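>> Question from a student workshop board

For tomorrow's exercise we were told to take the sequence and the ligand below, predict the bound structure, and bring the output to class. My setup keeps failing. Could a helper post the expected result so I can at least see what it should look like? The ligand is guanosine-5'-diphosphate-alpha-D-mannose.
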Amino acid sequence: MDLVGIPHTSRPCVSLNETATSTAPRLTVLVPTRNEREVVPLLLDALSPEFAALDAEILFVDDSDDDTPAVAAARAARCPLPVRLLHRPPGQRAGGLSGAVIAGARYALGTWVLVMDADLQHPPEAAAALARTALGHDADVVVGTRRAGTGSSGGLDGVTRSLVSSGSALLAKAFFPRRLATVTDPMSGLFAFRTDRIDLDRLNPLGFKILLEILVRHPSARVAEVAYTFAPRAAGRSKASLREGITYLRHLARLRRNQQPGSRAGALGRLLAFGLIGLSGIGVNTAALWLFHDVLNAPPLWGAALATQVSTAWNFALIELLVYRATTHGTRTGRGIRFFAMNNLLLLGRLPVLAWLIGLGLGVLTANALTLVLLFVLRFLFSDRLIYRAGREDREDTRRDPVRTLVDPAAPVGTPSAARGGHKRSQYLPHRYDIAGRVTIASQVRLPELEFFRAQWVAPGECDIAVRVGDIGRRGPHPRAGLTELTRSEQGRPASLRYEEQLGRLGANFRVDLGHPLSVEVSPLLARSPHVVYTNIIEALLRFVVVPRGWMLLHSACLDFDGTGVMLSALTDTGKTATVLRLLREHGGRFLSDDMTLVDAAGHAVCFPKPLTISAHTLRAVSADDLTAKEWFKLSAQSRLHSREGRSFALALARLNLPIMSINALTQLLVPPPKYAVDRLVPCTIGTTTEVSDLFVIERGAPGIGDMPYEEAVRRLLGNTEDAYGFPPFRYLAPALTIDGLDHTRLRVREREILAGFLSGIRVRTLASDCFGWADEIPALLGRERLDGIPLPDGHRPEQPHWDWQFDSPLALSGGTRTPRAGGPP
Ligand code: GDD
Ligand code: MN
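>> Workshop helper replied:
Here is what the output should look like for this input. Compare the format with yours to find the bug.
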């Protein structure tokens, strides 16, 4: 045994075998032990096959008085994984089991630490499933749960022990309802955490419940759960005791006392200030109503509407001055607009109630005041959370999403409801799309975004993605949205994932079966909102379906001038669409895409002409005489709702525990997004394929142009593409995907390779403008001779798009025939 020198502590941590790796492992399996000589050999034998492919090390943290270290060393000699042991001699065993975990975590080499018991009560295959979830998902803590899905605590000996266990879990949830809302088993001894997200110095170990300590001290840590069945102890004796129970109660009380200070008190103070201002506002409102109604004889509802404007102005001024002086979010004008919008929205809801109360015989002023009081709490919550984003500074937990994530490796995958026999719904898939001969989709829901790719015939059995409508999820409502992954694949049933929101079957739910075809089932609400189905589900799947075939769905616009492809990339709402429209109008050229483009590693681009989303500032590039007056008016209104403001409002909503996708679906159902085919907005031709030579990353700011280094370009464009998928539930959906045998991590690696190849022969430049002037600069930057230079004459009849297959050979896909640009990869 040789000592591994660890500088910052004097405790000896020894290697038990020679299997040391040259690079740091990704995962440290941390096993606390106290007098476990019987089970340690069994554990080592069982862990080896499960973790062999996972790039892991094993670290024992031992508080034994028996010969556990020697037994471990003897068996470690034939273990293929690196094994180390940290022994804590008597007198240095602070914190018991929890202390052991923290002490061990300081020696861990992995980016993840997975904690498990030595006695095989945590089955090694469950630990491995947990490890895979940790390494693949975007979470900070992954909890093994006995209390969700197929998880169970079967191996807990005795009724008493089971009762104590579920009782203490309930108690913890009562103490920390917010933090533990997405955690079903905060008492679990099987869990993993990301070492760089957990601050060990914040932890104050006591007794057995280290996971609880970690969760409560890190309010913003994102949690996912993996269901498992607690097995009976393999050998030896449990160290849980009545004393541990009492320690637990002390632990809870202490955690509660030391929780993040200020949050509730702050909110209470604000509520009080709000209350006083609101009271004065009701006075102002009543006085104004008296003036309008009693003095100027306005009808009561009109009077109330006008009075609301007066009191809104009053309240806003006072709130700005008195309540939120320090914590300002956004600009004052922006807040003012939202504040007035909110009050007028609430006014719409208030007027019928007011009319009803007046109808009951109440005086106008009394009825008005009554409705105002009723609205008070609602208003406070709305403006506190959404306009002032209060509490952001003193509450750390807002970065966390309110969605439960559960991986259930043992659950049987049920049959999709649409495929169950005897169902009234048809199986027929009337809408078929063939995306440039690369991906085929057959769907019961019309997908307007893919209209360009509508195909006469796609064999339903041979398509890549099938979309059906069905009843998904539990019947009744439930308190949280959740994503469940069923990873067991058996007898032809592929693994499956299910997203369910709070509203039961009425809400926006869907499931995806990961076979061939990828089978998507959407709830009836979603089926009525095809934009949401496409944007939030289908496009996310498409992104990964094309990757194993050598293509990437890159977030960028693409135009073709005389056979040369030019791409534009930008952050959302910079002005990309407007620039595309202006280039087409003023310089001709062919349109390939505005939002997403299919690209390969050899520099080819394939068109992806979705209808364009017209946001408020893009309106400038649409010339009014291309649209009818009605269309124009509708467009201006729609573009406001679906602007960046609208979107960031929706994202703020997503942080609250709300059925965000259902709200999104309903909004889009009521006010469809302003989407127009490109040739409705500007006369143009659609190009199908091109070879890209230039890419411009357009930005707002002081005018300037500069070459972007290759590495930076890859990073930026990948980040930009990622940004386009920022909307939930993509974050939960993506890590669960496995396509053509590639899991999410490998899909991403492959996608990056495609992008790196694509960019290797392309000149990437940043182009900044402070007056939306990108379209004026680009032609000159390309060299005029490469642009048509002549706008399309009026009445010009564009030619038919035709597919250009010439490069579509497997050889071309592997890339490498291009001359890399300066600074490109070797
Ligand atoms: N280093 C160290 N020091 N290890 C300890 C100590 C200690 O003071 N006490 C217990 N352990 C080790 C044991 O050797 C074993 O590997 C693991 O911690 C769990 O101990 P058990 O004695 O088997 O506990 P249990 O089965 O009753 O409790 C388990 O289930 C609980 C939930 O019901 C543990 O996983 C708990 O963490 C969990 O809360
Ligand atoms: Mn045990």
